[in-house]
Amino acid sequence: MTEINVAPEAAGKILAVNAKEGDTVHVGDVLAQLDDTLLKDQRHCRFQPGYGKIALVQLTSPVTIANLQKAIAQDKQAVDDAQQAYDNQKYSPPIRAPSVTPRPA
After folding, report:
1. Which of 16, 49, 70, 88 has the fewest CB atoms within 10 Å, measured from its CB?
2. Do 41 and 56 share a domain, yes or no?
3. Are 45 and 52 in contact (CB under 8 A)?
4. Helix, strand, coil: what percent of the chain each, to 5?
């Protein structure tokens, strides 16, 4: 049996594996299927005049920027709140029960 390492020409998510270790395969057999959605989108963009410009305008619109800035501020606040809660737990002195002295019987 001959062992051969294979690698795809492009990186991507594997959708299906059509052969198992130890299977006999032949030239031309499809061993795995990669998700080609991103590749198709890239091809589509290349052949659509002005498509990149439209996407850039959408991404840099004042509304989009404002929404992203709001989301970033909310995320920063959540991180600050989590850090404060952690610090409060980390630096709070342990709570001790009051000492009780037993009475002689």
Report:
1. 49
2. no
3. yes
4. 45, 5, 45
Whether residue 59 sits in one domain with residue 36: no
104 located within any domain? no
pLDDT category at 89 given cuts 50, 70, 90 is confident
pLDDT in tens, 12-50: 788 899 988 888 888 889 888 888 887 777 776 666 666
What letter does residue 17 receive in the DSSP assignment? Answer: E
| Pairing of the two strands 14-17 and 32-34 | antiparallel
94/70 Cα distance (integer angstroms) = 38
Domain-embedded: residue 94: no
Kindly report the number of other CB atoms within 10 A of residue 33's CB atom. 13
Range of the domain at 32: 8-21+28-47
- Check: CB of residue 51 under 8 Å from CB of residue 45: yes
Write out the DSSP string of 20-56.
-TT----TT---EEE--HHHHHHHHHHTSTTHHHHHH
